[in-house]
Each structure stands twice: as structure tokens, then as C-alpha cells.
Amino acid sequence: MITSNVEIGSNADAYRFGFNALAEARDIVRRVVQPTPQIEWPLLAQRTGAQVWVKHENHLPTGAFKMRGGLVLAHALLAGRHGPVPSGVITATVGNHGLSQAFAGRRAGLQVTIVVPENNNPEKNAAIKALGAELIEAGHDFSAAYEIAQGLARERRLHLIEPFHPDLVRGVATWAYEFFEAVQEVDTVYVPIGLGSGICGLIRTRDLFGLKTRIVGVVSSHAAAYALSFEAGKVVSTQTAQTIADGVAVRVPRADALEIIRRGADRIVTVSDDEVRLAMRAYHEDTHNLAEGAAATPLAALLQERARMGGQRVGLVMTGANISRPLLAQVLSAT
């Protein structure tokens, strides 16, 4: 666990949307999908010693919370809020962000190109292509794939979608809007940190609701760039980010996201791949839901902090269910 109360210098003003902008994003999302459930699971309470609600973003059509951001950004693009309406967009992903752009782009009538790292989850790749997007496999990890997407955007004159963008943050923040409307007096919410849209949207929503809920970010100990940066007060990159929780496999943090996290999060907890596997099995046994690696990190962190969190009212966001069959089989077969 790493804690910090120090602020750092970076421009994060673009992410300080107001309540009306958040409500607009909620309405955009609700035109497509109904709010996902937040369920209090008795077996998780027994396992963790806390009163636990799980926000089930795994129930969305793309199997992950990122779909919300894709819908809101596509709406903004069609409304001309970011310049002339583009004929096509391009981005990089390891899966869920790409699914969101493919889903929203198809609804908006946009041509979508997605760059994924080589050896990416083949099931996520197939789902992206099934939504009509062009899929390009290039680069050894997400950061390399994003650099390739930047070059292709210039070459093909496509609109580059940054995976951490104000409209994406505002869109994914709608899960927090739904959660805080449904569950009152929550002491702590645990949330995974990829590039930061999920936790930054949660922080902003908590603040707009005027709540005192503590927010705990979770990263993999095998991809600890945000935890190291949180402690150092500046961006600290790592050479590798190899973890079964591919949604948090980030080695180059965003300075603007880091500023928001350092101002608004209580702490960051690092969890090992073994702890993530245990949490995935726990979710399956206690809720019969499939949690991909990143989605299991909040429960892994709560289990790590069981003694500290006993008796508290806790929220966990199950960010997605897009786990490959071989990994799922490996995780569930362990004893």
C-alpha cells in the first residue's frame, strides 16, 4: 500500500466537468442501456468481513464499463464539439477501450480502426472485428500500439482517440453516478487503475455528490507505474507491465490522470497476480460472475486489507468480464 497527500503540478482542468455535464452523459448512456445493478453479496461479506456492494459493469453489451465513454465521445464527435465530424477514428487498446469505440462508432456511422498489441487476447480481438472495426495487431504492448496508432492517424488522416480523454472520463463516470444514487453512506470504493478514466471519473463524481467516500486505486504489482508515480509525486514509468490483469497493464502513466488521482484518492494498493487469481475464483464462487483480471483487482485489494476494512460499507466495481477461455480455465482449475 502507498499513501500520499501531496499535490503535483499538471493541467487537469479539462476533466473538471460539472454536474449538468455528468447528467448529460448519464442520459446519453441511458438511451442505449439501462443502469447496471449494484448487488450486495452475503458470501462476499463473509469472505471479506465488510458489507460489500458490487457494481456489475460486466453486464453491459461489450462486457465492460468502457462502453459508457465510447457512447459519450461518439455523441460529442457527431455534435461537432471536437471540430468537423470525422469520417473515421483510430485508437489503441488491449481490449475493452477498443470494444467501446467499435460499439459506439458503429452506432454513430463512423469507420473505426483499432490497434492492439501483438499476442493480444484473441477473444477480445474477435469481438472488436465482429463490431465492424478494422483491427491491426502491432507493437509489443499497449504503449507501443498507441505510438503506432498515432502514426497511422497522421498517415490516414483519421481522428485519433486518446484512451484518456475528457469525454471518455465523463462517460465512464456514469457508473459512479448510478452507484452513488443507489447506495448511500459508502465508506470506501475500490477501483482498478488502467490509464485512469475509471478512477478519475469516480473521484469527480464523488466530489460532485459532496460525499466523503474514500477512493482506493488498485494496480498490479507487476505493472506498478501508477503506484510508483503516486508515491514519487511525478510520472514514473516502468520498463515492463506484464500481468494477467491486462486492463491495468500500463507502464507510462498520464500526468493529468496522476494529478487527479493524487488529489482525490486515499491510497493505492498493489496486488499480485496470485491475489488476482484468488479474487477471480472468489467472484465465481460467491457471485457466479466472470471477472477479468483487472475487474478482480478491487476484490483482491479488499481481501488484502481485510483486517483494516472489517465492518465497513464498501463498493467494488466489476469493470469487465472479457477473460480468455484458457486463462479462465487455468484460474478456476487451481485449488
Please describe what this structure looks like:
With 335 residues, the chain is an alpha/beta fold. It is built from 14 helices and 11 strands. It has helices at residues 19-30, 42-48, 67-78, 96-108, 122-130, 142-156, 166-182, 197-208, 225-232, 255-264, 273-287, 293-304, 306-309, 325-333; strands spanning 2-3, 38-40, 51-56, 88-92, 111-116, 134-137, 159-160, 188-192, 214-220, 267-271, 313-318. Strands 1-10-9-8-11-3-2 form a 7-stranded mixed beta sheet, sandwiched between helices. Strands 6-5-4-7 form a 4-stranded parallel beta sheet, with helices on both faces. Strand 4 (88-92), helix 4 and strand 5 form a beta-alpha-beta unit. Helix 7 (166-182) packs across helix 8 (197-208). The longest helix is centred in the middle third of the chain and has 17 residues, at 166-182. It starts with a strand and ends with a helix. Mean pLDDT is 94; it is low at 1-10.
